[in-house]
Specification:
By secondary structure, this protein is an alpha/beta fold. The chain is built from four helices and 14 strands. It is 12% helix and 24% strand. Strand 10 and strand 11 form a beta hairpin. Bound molecules: guanosine-5'-triphosphate (GTP) and magnesium ion. The site of guanosine-5'-triphosphate (GTP) has 24 residues, from helix 2.
Length: 323
Amino acid sequence: MRFVDYVRIRVKAGKGGDGIIAFRREKFVPKGGPAGGNGGHGGSIIVQVDAQLHTLQDIRYHRIYKAKRGKHGEGSLKHGKNGEDIFIKVPAGTIVKDFESGDIIADLQLDGESIVAAYGGRGGRGNGEFVTPTHQAPREFEYGRDGQERELELELKVLADVGLVGFPNAGKSTLLSRVSRAKPKIADYPFTTLTPNLGIVKSGAYSSFVMADIPGLIEGAHEGKGLGTQFLKHVERCSVLLFLVDANDENPGESYRLLYNEVEKFSPGLLKRERLLAITKMDAYVGVPKVTTFEPIDLFTISSVSGEGLDNLIQTLATQISG
Ligand SMILES: Nc1nc2c(ncn2[C@@H]2O[C@H](COP(=O)(O)OP(=O)(O)OP(=O)(O)O)[C@@H](O)[C@H]2O)c(=O)[nH]1
Ligand SMILES: [Mg+2]
C-alpha cells in the first residue's frame, strides 16, 4: 500500500434552509396566527479519526466533499430537516490546516476525535418566530445562510514511539520485520524503503509500542540528497530514536556522527529525544566491533538474522518509553 501523507481537499458545508411565511387556517378560527416554520441547518463537514486507518489513501481519490442543504421550513410551524453532516475519516496523527491562511485547525490524535472543518449554514427563521405582542401577523422571514466553504490540507505525521534512523541498507526494515508483524520490503540495495512502515512491537504480555521504519538517510540528506530528510518529520513524535549502524561499516562511530549531523541539520529539537545506538548485522561480523562515538550513548549489538541482542534492546526501548 502506498503511504500517502499529504492531501488537499475542498469542503463545502450545506446551506441552511429558508424560513417561510405561512398562517394558520383553521375551521373555527377566522384569522389564524403566523405559522411559517424555520429552515433546517445545512450539513457540516467533520474530520474524524478512525484508528483503523493508517494512510490518507482513500481521500486522494475523493477530493471534494459537499454536505446537503437544510430543507425549507413548512407551514404549521414545522421546521425543515437539517442537512446530514459528512464525516471524513482520517488516521490518528492527521493535522488539518486551512490552505489559504496556513493555520492549523486541528491536530487529531485520538480515535474518534473530530473537528468541524466547515460549518453548515444556519436555517432561516420562519414568520412564526417574529411574533411579538404588538406584531401579531408578521410577514418577515429569513433565508438560510450559506455553508462554510474552504480548502484544507491534511497532513499525516506517523505516531510512533520509536523511530529508526540509519543509512540505507543498515537493516532498519529487517529489524522491524523481526520484532513486529510488519512486512516491509527488504533488499540488499539502498533506498528499498521509500515510505514509512509501522509495526507494533510486543514488549511483554500486556505491553507493546509502535516502531517506525523510515527511508534511509545519507550524508547531505538535509540538502535533499538521496530521499532527503522529508521523512524525518515522521519521527518527530517518537519519544526514542534508535540509530542503526552496520557493524561492517568502516567506522561505525563515524557513521553515527554523520547520521547525528543530518538529524541535527533537519531539526535540532529531534535530538532532545532519547537516543540509542544499535550496531546491526552482528551475525555477519567476526569479532567485536570497535565503536568510538563522539558522545556517550547506550550501545547495543544486534542481529536480526540470529536474533542476538534483540530481547535486551526491546526491553530497554520499552523502559525508555514508559519512563
Ligand atoms: N547478515 C545480516 N544481514 C542483514 C541483517 N539485517 C539486514 N540485513 C540485510 O541487509 C540488507 C538491507 O536490509 P534492509 O532491512 O532492507 O535495510 P534498510 O535499512 O531498511 O535499507 P533502506 O530501506 O534501503 O534504507 C538486506 O539484504 C538484509 O537482508 C542482519 O542482521 N544480518
Ligand atoms: Mg528499508
